[in-house]
């Protein structure tokens, strides 16, 4: 699924950028371009940042 239509950035690309250390909308833009066009994807980018942040707090399944 596309997150950023302006630059054809897919959700998995944004999640990869987050997992590699991009923790802000600006850092995501620097990493993959998402959010640097019209800006309509910024809310979704913030949601993905929060989802990834929450996922990293969960304990690993044994």
From TrEMBL:
Pfam families named in the record: Fer2_BFD
| BFD-like [2Fe-2S]-binding domain sequence ranges | 3-51
Entry keyword set: 2Fe-2S, Electron transport, Iron, Iron-sulfur, Metal-binding, Transport
Identify a single GO molecular function assigned to this protein.
metal ion binding
**Superkingdom field:** Bacteria
InterPro entries on file: BFD-associated_ferredoxin, BFD-like_2Fe2S-bd_dom, BFD-like_2Fe2S-bd_dom_sf
UniProt entry tagged with the keyword Metal-binding:
yes
Family that this chain belongs to: Belongs to the Bfd family.
Could you tell me what this protein is called?
Bacterioferritin-associated ferredoxin
Organism whose genome encodes this protein = Actinoplanes regularis
